[in-house]
Amino acid sequence: MKSIGVTDLRQRTAEILDELHRSDEPFVILQRSRRSAYLVDAVRYDAERDELRAARRQLFLREVRESEAEYAAGQAKPYEDMEALLDDLRR
Question: What is the dotted CATH code of the domain comprising 2-40?
Answer without folding.
Answer: 3.40.1620.10
